[in-house]
Amino acid sequence: MKKKITLKQIARELDVSVSTVSKALSGSKEISEDTTQKIQAFAKLYNYKPNNIALSLKNRKTKTIGILIPEIVHHFFSTVIRGIERVANRRGYNVIVGLSNESFAKEIINMEMLANGSIDGFILSISKETLLKQDYHHFHATINQGMPIVMFDRVVSEVECDKVIVDDFNGAVKAVKKLIENNCKNIALITTMDYVSVGKLRTQGYLEALETNGFVPDSNLILKIDDSLNVENHLEILETEIAQFFQTNPQIDGVFAVNELYAVTAMKVAKKLGVHVPDDIQVIGFTDGVLSKHATPSLTTVSQHGQKMGEQAANLLIDRLDAEDAEGEQYFTNKDKKSDFITVVIETEIIERESTK
Amino acid sequence: MKKKITLKQIARELDVSVSTVSKALSGSKEISEDTTQKIQAFAKLYNYKPNNIALSLKNRKTKTIGILIPEIVHHFFSTVIRGIERVANRRGYNVIVGLSNESFAKEIINMEMLANGSIDGFILSISKETLLKQDYHHFHATINQGMPIVMFDRVVSEVECDKVIVDDFNGAVKAVKKLIENNCKNIALITTMDYVSVGKLRTQGYLEALETNGFVPDSNLILKIDDSLNVENHLEILETEIAQFFQTNPQIDGVFAVNELYAVTAMKVAKKLGVHVPDDIQVIGFTDGVLSKHATPSLTTVSQHGQKMGEQAANLLIDRLDAEDAEGEQYFTNKDKKSDFITVVIETEIIERESTK
DNA sequence: ATATTTAACGAAAACGTTTTCGTGTTGATA
DNA sequence: TATCAACACGAAAACGTTTTCGTTAAATAT
Questions:
Q1: Where do runs of H (alpha helix) occur along B3-103?
Q2: Nearest nt to B33, CA vs C1'?
Q3: Residues in chain A within 8 Å Cβ distance of B49
Q4: For B291-330, how does the pLDDT look when each residue is reduced to its tens digit (9 = 90+)?
Q5: Which residue from A3, A117, A294 is facing B52, i.e. has the nearest CB?
Q6: Fewest beta carbons within 10 Å, which of A22, B149, B282, B288?
Q7: Which residues in chain B are closer than 8 Å to A146, comparing Cβ atoms?
Q8: How high is the pLDDT of residue A195?
């Protein structure tokens, strides 16, 4: 077994100093042709690669960014990761992933673990529990320590940082407007509890679209699902809730759901109740994931562009990091530039499939 | 902005030496009560946390493990990551993720980036292109450098290391036997090209099950999909292929598909052709993902237990890493122990849903 | 022949830790 | 009173780099 070789070993072997080896390998013309050649040949032979940890320590930057998300077995979040990884890789960064599991405590633990030198900056989406508690001190703390954060999707105005969000409000408006154009008269909303910001915004969009089109919102047509429990494991509960909802409101001829699981489940329930999609009832979901694409009938959705969000977030973060060490600390102590934080809004569009006419 | 505080700064502030601070914080009784108290209070006040990079450099271990997978927007792989992250976190490790995107080159690049000190060991699943090329030198190289690898799912006998696989062969056997018991007489197989090991094993299981039950395998009933292109984007091609397959073989009354996408698509195609599932044709897939659960009818599948695979893989790797620095290098130079590599086989079971009787 | 430049290299510091090995004060013991 | 532990702490090395600043010898200029 050949352990990785170090500068010191090369130096000893070739009877020169460590500095000479370092310079020769970086092609410094401070070193003679001869020795440079010799050293480079030797290094190649033994497949020398500088140790990343040592470099990180010296440069005080790790060239890795930390991703902190609530859940990874989730189409949207994994799409975001893919986007982040793409640009991170292109721009010479690695990604290290932490999962909060929607837990406030795990979110904090993870941040503290990573914030101690392991990464140069965060890209994260806030856990449900944190949103519920509205306790954001850990975000403020790490930002205060000079570690930049980019938030995506589940963001919060209380924290000043770069953000990437999808236009939840207008996405919902578009969806509902589409249903109205398709002649739906009684449009239902299946949503989550309000504390997750995106759910709230989509709900507001639903209401807005109704009102501007002369509809009067009917609270009976709004079904709020308690998603504090992981819905994936409580599918039956979800189904019966929706079934009851449909049965007590038989006039429903259009459904807007704030995520694709609710939408697909609504379609399944409709089918069981003998209601035909899209003839009797049309359905639009949010987030364009696997379910939407492969459901029968396939689901019309509001696209969420997870990969694009990831790419934008990564670019925002890396731009800031690169700027940091280009301009040195001046970048931060400069009071003028103090709060030039950007919020990128990704536009949504409707992807029409079989669940609408 | 308060940058993270270091030992040196504490030392200067309290007018003691760095070593004293270090010892005081670790509770060494070499230091007097008084100073220990003073230092610990100061450290807590300024929220001192030791720098991970410095620790990594000193200890020559990073306490992070590298995950290298072909794709992350994929239910199975993300499940595995969740499993890895779970035990990694519990055992004090971080995870850093690289994506090969099914590319040989990206796989190598990623490994080289991470192998230079950033991680202590790998957990990976081989990319399709690598399997096709059958070039495994990069695995051998990193193993030779003393960095342990644990492979999962897509493994290869040419590389000696710990492995975690699912019992693809027997899973397929079970599935086909189930179809036979359910009175299917003409059981079709929808599979991938042979170079991906898991596909090959599942195909073999299909054949085995037929033969031991007195069936004669009919090559007309085997549909091999070329999955060199990303199927997600070529859904129509997949659908038309399956449609043709069904039409030229109307006798098919049972389908075993090596993944859930093929299975769900087969059901969709069947429905379009007016063939009823499960009355006219029964379908079983492999991998228990979102699609299986939420399809209508929901899909009977062979469970793949991604999370369990991840957990096992992580435990194998961390066991080895911990053993390494418990016994020192002796662990490795000890010739007796040289090839005590373990292959963990995760058992499969059939999850019965609506697509079978 | 002397002074000065240049070429080629080495020593040392620095990044932030931990740990081993001193070293100088005490207080107790012989 | 001399000797010796025990105590409380500091200096320095080490992990693997890069970089600044010498330093020496040769080469050039005066």
A1: 7-14, 18-25, 33-45, 52-59, 75-90
A2: D8
A3: 112, 115-116
A4: 999 998 999 999 999 999 999 999 999 999 999 877 654 4
A5: A117
A6: A22
A7: 1, 3-4
A8: 76
- Contact criterion met (CB below 8 Å) for A48 and A14: no
Distance CA A17, CA B219 (A): 68
3-state secondary structure of B24: helix
Two structure tokens written together for B1: 């902005």
CA gap B80, B314 in Å, rounded:
10
Question: What is the nearest CA distance from B172 to chain A, expressed in angstroms?
Answer: 24
Query: What is the token pair recorded at B17?
Result: 């030496």
Give the tokens for residue B51: 């720098």
- Of B261, B81, B300, nearest to A74 (Cα)? B81
Integer Cα distance of A252 and A245 in angstroms: 9
Per-residue pLDDT averaged across B173-187, rounded? 97
Q: Contact A50/B146, CB-based, under 8 Å?
A: no
Query: A121 - beta bridge partners?
Result: A65
Identify the band that residue A196 occupies on the pLDDT scale cut at 50, 70 and 90.
Answer: confident
Chain B residue nearest residue A338, CA to CA? B1
% of chain B exceeding 90 in pLDDT: 88
Q: What is the mean pLDDT of residues B127-134?
A: 94
Asked whether B3 and A146 are in contact (CB, 8 A), the reply is: yes
Within 10 angstroms of residue B11's Cβ, the number of other Cβ atoms is 17
Q: Which chain A residue lies closest to B298 (C-alpha atoms)?
A: A268
Are the beta carbons of A85 and B72 separated by less than 8 Å? yes
User: Under an 8 A CB cutoff, do B112 and A290 touch?
Assistant: no
What value does the mean pLDDT take over residues A106-135?
A: 96
Which pairing describes strands A343-346 and A162-166: parallel, antiparallel, or unpaired?
parallel
Amino acid (1-letter code) at residue A3? K
B305 vs B346: CA distance, rounded Å: 8
Residues of chain B with Cβ-Cβ distance to A89 below 8 Å are: 99
Identify the residue among B7, B71, B94 best suited for mutation to test binding to A, counting A beta carbons within 10 A and taking the highest: B94
Are the C-beta atoms of residues B312 and B342 closer than 8 Å to each other? no
Angle at B229 between CA B228 and CA B234, to 5 degrees: 140
Torsion on CA atoms A298, A299, A303, A304, rounded to nearest 10: -100
The answer to whether residue B28 scores a pLDDT higher than 80 is yes
The helix, strand and coil proportions of chain A, stated in percent and rounded to the nearest 5, come to 50, 15, 35
Quick one: pLDDT at residue B329? Answer: 47
Considering only CA atoms, which of B215, B205, B197, B213 is closest in space to residue B175? B205
Integer CA distances (angstroms), B157 to B50, B190, B202, B206, B346, in order: 42, 25, 17, 22, 17
What token pair was written down for B238? 């997949």
As to burial, measured by CB atoms within 10 angstroms (0-12 exposed, 13-18 middle, 19+ buried), residue B157 is exposed
Instruction: Determine the 3-state secondary structure of A184 from DSSP.
Output: coil
| Look-up of token digits 């379910």 | A291
End-to-end CA distance of chain A: 65
Q: How far away is chain A from the Cα of B147, in angstroms, using its nearest Cα?
A: 9
Q: Nearest residue on chain B to A6, judged by CA atoms? A: B116
Nucleotide nearest to A57 (CA to C1'): C15
